[in-house]
Design brief:
By secondary structure, the protein is α/β, with parallel strands linked by helices. It is 27% helix and 26% strand. The protein is built from four helices and seven strands. Strands 1-7-6-2-5-4-3 form a seven-stranded mixed β-sheet. α1 packs across α2. The radius of gyration is 14 Å and the shape is globular. The chain binds adenosine-5'-diphosphate and magnesium ion (MG). Magnesium ion binds next to α2.
Length: 153
Amino acid sequence: MNEHQIKTHTEEDTKVIAAQLAGLLGPGDVVTLEGDLGAGKTTFTKGIATGLGVKRIVNSPTYTIVKEYEGDLPLYHMDVYRLEDSEEDIGFSEYFEGDGISIVEWAHFIKEYLPKERLDIKINHIDEQSRLIQFCPRGSRFDSIIASLKEKL
Ligand code: ADP
Ligand code: MG
């Protein structure tokens, strides 16, 4: 498996990496984001949105669970934190198998709905401004996406 990790030292660095990743993603791709509050999951999503040419400002969808944005491909931004301890299915498969790219913050709360093939990303605080971003591809498609990302960075 093509695991990869990278350190960033500013919010902007994190967004640039996310935007590079966005250029490699296609319809129906699912990316999960794990990490403590303030790690940078939403910041990473903002970078993906920029990479997809989304013009609207991307904010945390905490109160809505899913927000959809129009870009070169649709972006479905989910924060499933509030689904902790519930087994609610808000129609995930329609998003995951749809024409857009799904980004899921706190994805472990909906493990049972996640596709087997996906890109798992963990973000950890190193200090105030530095983060460790770990890419764990699940399946051959995401393996090669991460191989290409490594070459771009
Ligand atoms: P989460 O969605 O994981 O709760 P956010 O993306 O909302 O986190 O918040 C991350 C915060 O950390 C932002 O205020 C951002 O400016 C700050 N930050 C500082 N350094 C970085 C970095 N290297 N990468 C990402 N965010 C950073
Ligand atoms: Mg967030």
